[in-house]
Structure to design on (810 residues):
């Protein structure tokens, strides 16, 4: 009995793994690897300055960049509180026939000091990661 | 000065925990009375010392003492009082200190309420508890010290993350920690049993109250966390299968299995080695959860500080405890006498199936949670294992559990009569079918999967209550006699019924909201009305106002049904003064068990407002179910036979009870 349940569970896990996991890609990956149209992926990078266009009924378009390649993103819905131009985000969705990334979920960082790890990695890989020093912190006081 | 006293008390507690780790266990092995006797006073002393440390840190927050680094980084003098208090654990150092405080509180409770335990067991348990508190006190003192001062105190602090400035922070972490950490006692009891090399049904009776307390708090903590995320994050999700959530859910699953296997052990003296294993596993998963959440391997609102040294430290603690406890298990468990065998069709057989499915489901969740981390560490490839994976693996494993629950409740111990139980459940099955069809019809009925989900949920609900009906038999003996019997039913019957009823209610909420929730994103102009899920929602106006430490833009919405005003809703967008961080606050309207949820977005160029409106049918049942489950756990705790300080029951009463339970009421 235990064997049957475990085997069934293992089967379910393998099936789900095959079908339900989502790979993370940077704009460069998407351009280089030719991600198939319609496949679900997570796209990470910075929101390009000046690229955000608000349309009707909460429709938004913007461009995600890793400073090497860019991908146009379309999204309908409320953007997270900390979504801003120049900030790191992760979007989940798929590339449509026109090469536009149709996002159904957009995640931004949780607080001021947070850049999604995947985004940081993607930027490091493309050689555009800068370690910003938090000025207010350093100027305010010295650690004991 | 007070800060230094707190720091000093913490170091003293560390020393006390070191002594408690060594001598009681040594004494237990060598039957040395004097060495065993040091355990209880040390456990109490540790609690007092850590309490002093915690009070000192709280004092620093209350007085906004910005000479303390921890207070600077997480507080602000304008912060409302409640968040000054809860802010104590709204950061890495403080939350670990709270963890330790609860850990030593449990140690002190064991030393106070275990006078009737055999001295050896008591000393070894407290000794093992000493190992855990030693490990975590070393962590606090050497790498997560909340009492560090700065040379030049600034005038103001940097304020607490706005997302944490909510009543949820005052409730969720303490509840969850009592649950997490409570399982440490169960772990210590298991280690003690292995060290002493003896275990019997009485052990299960002593351990069960601690399992129950931990389980009740963990249930409440998880439910509270879920509700908090639901109203605070602004996207109306109540469970994301986020690794951080899974971290608390895995010990809950194995803890639930443990709760049931301990009953088998107590009643039938069977499943001993398995129960010990579950006890070790549950706390190991609690430690894993602490590692995942506190180490910074995951980036989430829970990971306050990303510091690799700390991550390695917790990983070290995790490996020592998991590896160590499994080694002790492998070495000593063969010495334990196995209990009796039993027929597959019986109460204990059903409980074994429950355990099998719950632990398998835990394994699936474990795999999905850790696979991305391991894959990234090994190959550098980044993947996300999201809700679809968990729904597809966890869901099917839960269906048999839910289907079996009513049978398990009615099957007799030792040898059950499956056909007899099926006949007795016939009426409950009929009620299930009727309720299922009514609800499916009411919801608009084309969704077959949802209808099946309703059916399974109602089956659990009616099945849970059926045991009571089956025992008092109102249709046979008449209502007055049935009421008399109802009052006389053992508490455990109500505990089981409520525990299972809660599961059914939660399942019903989950199925309904998953199948029938709606999300509408609109751009609305002031005065405009839109219809959502049978309600008319009018956007009236927005205005700006000041809060204690933020400014906010509030929108007013009027909710109408059939032309009648039923509520006004005020979602808002805040910007916190100190940090400049924005924060969206959703507005909720509860109607029966369903909710309307409004979250506001940005203003559009033409003066409109982007608005997200959710209709969440029966969603509150998810959390009400958790409350009902917890209530069941509490009632089980009140059972006299389980009283923590109860005199050691004679062997006879346990068998008598087993016999009584095996003969279904008349």
């Amino acid at each position: 009995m235990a064997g049957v349940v475990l085997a069934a569970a293992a089967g379910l896990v393998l099936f789900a793994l095959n079908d339900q996991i989502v790979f993370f890609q940077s704009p460069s990956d998407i351009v280089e690897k030719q991600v198939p149209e319609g496949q679900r992926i997570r796209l990470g990078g910075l929101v390009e300055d000046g690229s955000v266009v608000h349309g009707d009924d909460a429709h938004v378009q913007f461009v995600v960049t890793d400073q090497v390649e860019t991908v146009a993103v379309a999204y309908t819905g409320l953007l997270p509180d900390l979504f801003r131009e120049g900030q790191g985000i992760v979007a989940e969705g798929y590339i449509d026939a026109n090469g536009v990334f149709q996002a159904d979920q957009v995640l931004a960082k949780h607080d001021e000091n947070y850049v999604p790890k995947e985004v940081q990695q993607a930027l490091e890989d493309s050689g555009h990661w800068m370690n910003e020093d938090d000025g207010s912190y350093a100027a305010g006081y010295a650690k004991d | 000065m007070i800060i230094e006293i707190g720091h000093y008390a913490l170091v003293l507690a560390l020393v006390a925990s070191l002594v408690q780790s060594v001598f009681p266990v040594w004494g237990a092995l060598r039957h040395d009375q004097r060495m065993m006797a040091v355990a209880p006073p040390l456990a109490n002393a540790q609690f007092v010392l850590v309490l002093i440390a915690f009070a000192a840190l709280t004092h620093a927050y209350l007085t906004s003492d910005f000479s303390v680094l921890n207070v600077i980084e997480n507080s602000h003098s304008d912060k409302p009082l409640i968040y000054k208090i809860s802010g104590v654990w709204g950061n890495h150092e403080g939350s670990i200190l709270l963890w330790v405080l609860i850990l030593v509180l449990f140690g002190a409770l064991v030393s106070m309420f275990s006078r009737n335990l055999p001295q050896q067991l008591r000393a070894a348990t407290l000794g093992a508890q000493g190992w855990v508190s030693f490990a975590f006190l070393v962590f606090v003192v050497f790498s997560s010290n909340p009492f560090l001062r700065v040379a030049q105190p600034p005038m103001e602090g940097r304020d607490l993350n706005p997302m944490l400035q909510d009543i949820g922070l005052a409730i969720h972490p303490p509840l969850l920690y009592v649950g997490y950490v409570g399982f440490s006692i169960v772990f210590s009891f298991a280690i003690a049993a292995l060290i002493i090399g003896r275990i019997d049904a009485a052990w299960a009776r002593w351990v069960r109250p601690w399992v129950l307390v931990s389980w009740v708090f963990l249930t409440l903590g998880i439910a509270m966390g879920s509700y908090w995320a639901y109203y605070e994050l602004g996207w109306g999700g109540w469970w994301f299968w986020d690794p951080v959530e899974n971290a608390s859910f895995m010990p809950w699953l194995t803890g639930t299995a443990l709760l049931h296997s301990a009953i088998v052990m107590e009643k039938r003296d069977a499943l001993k080695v398995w129960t010990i294993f579950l006890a070790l596993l549950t706390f190991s998963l609690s430690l894993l959860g602490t590692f995942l959440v506190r180490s910074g391997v995951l980036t989430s609102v829970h990971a306050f500080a990303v510091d690799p040294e700390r991550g390695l430290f917790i990983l070290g603690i995790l490996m020592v405890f998991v590896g160590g406890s499994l080694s002790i298990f492998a070495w000593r468990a063969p010495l334990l006498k196995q209990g009796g065998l039993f027929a597959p069709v019986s109460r204990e057989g059903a409980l074994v199936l429950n355990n099998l499915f719950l632990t398998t489901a835990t394994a699936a969740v474990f795999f999905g949670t850790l696979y991305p981390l391991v894959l990234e560490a090994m190959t550098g490839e980044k993947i996300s294992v999201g809700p679809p994976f968990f729904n597809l693996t966890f869901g099917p494993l839960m269906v048999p559990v839910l289907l079996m629950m009513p049978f398990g409740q009615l099957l007799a111990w030792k040898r059950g009569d499956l056909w007899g139980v099926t006949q007795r459940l016939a009426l409950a099955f009929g009620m299930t079918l009727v309720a299922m069809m009514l609800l499916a019809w009411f919801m608009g009925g084309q969704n077959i999967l949802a209808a099946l989900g309703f059916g399974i949920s109602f089956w659990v609900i009616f099945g849970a209550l059926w045991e009571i009906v089956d025992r008092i038999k109102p249709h046979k003996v008449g209502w007055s006699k049935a009421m008399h019997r109802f009052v006389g039913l053992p508490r455990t019957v109500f505990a089981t019924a409520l525990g299972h009823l809660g599961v059914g209610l939660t399942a019903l909420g989950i199925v309904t909201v998953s199948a029938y929730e709606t999300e509408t994103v609109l751009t609305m102009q002031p005065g405009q009305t839109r219809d959502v899920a049978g309600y008319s929602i009018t956007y009236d106006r927005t205005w700006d106002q000041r809060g204690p430490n933020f400014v906010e833009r509030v929108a007013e919405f009027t909710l109408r049904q059939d032309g009648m005003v039923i509520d006004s809703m005020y979602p808002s967008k805040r910007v916190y003064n100190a940090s400049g961080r924005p924060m969206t606050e959703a507005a909720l309207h509860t109607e029966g068990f369903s909710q309307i949820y409004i979250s506001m977005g940005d203003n559009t160029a033409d003066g409109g407002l982007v608005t997200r409106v959710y209709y969440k049918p029966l969603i509150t049942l998810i959390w009400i179910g958790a409350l009902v489950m917890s209530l069941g756990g509490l009632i089980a705790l009140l059972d006299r036979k389980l009283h923590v300080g109860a005199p050691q029951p004679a062997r006879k009463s346990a068998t008598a009870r087993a016999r009584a339970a095996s003969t279904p009421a008349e």
Remarks:
- Chain A is about 30% helix and 30% strand.
- Chain A has one domain: 18-129.
- Residues 6 and 43 of chain A are 35 Å apart (CA to CA).
